[in-house]
Specification:
elongated; two-stranded antiparallel ribbon; alpha+beta
């Protein structure tokens, strides 16, 4: 069909536009405050990590069993981590729950500088 309405010249852009409209409409219906996670309700994996402020001591998952605690994964090079730092410090001072920080890919002085 040369020059007809159903030529590929019109169908491909129409299909792409339709797909974009579909994903935009679906995205607008999502709750921005809801962050789905496959880890909610699952036990924390076993770990034994050296404490940053005392290399002679370690913290284990079993030390935290039966307690409510928050794990914060952070790094000195992470911009979002730096932004949330003041909020986490203020929250930790309330004593609501202990906060365990897991430093990601920093070593010694670099981790302390974060």
């Amino acid at each position: 069909m040369k020059g007809g309405f159903f030529s590929l010249r019109f169908i491909i852009p129409l299909a792409i536009f339709s797909a974009l409209v579909f994903f935009l409409a679906r995205g607008l219906k999502l709750d921005p405050h809801e962050v789905p996670s496959p880890l909610i309700g699952k036990p924390a994996p076993g770990f034994a990590l050296t404490k940053l402020d005392d290399a002679g001591k370690t913290i284990h998952r079993d030390d935290m069993l039966g307690k409510v605690w928050m794990l914060n994964v952070w790094a000195s090079w992470c911009v979002a981590c730096r932004e949330e730092h003041a909020t986490l410090l203020a929250f930790s001072k309330t004593g609501a729950v202990p906060i365990i920080g897991l430093n990601y890919k920093d070593n010694g002085p670099t981790a302390w500088a974060g």
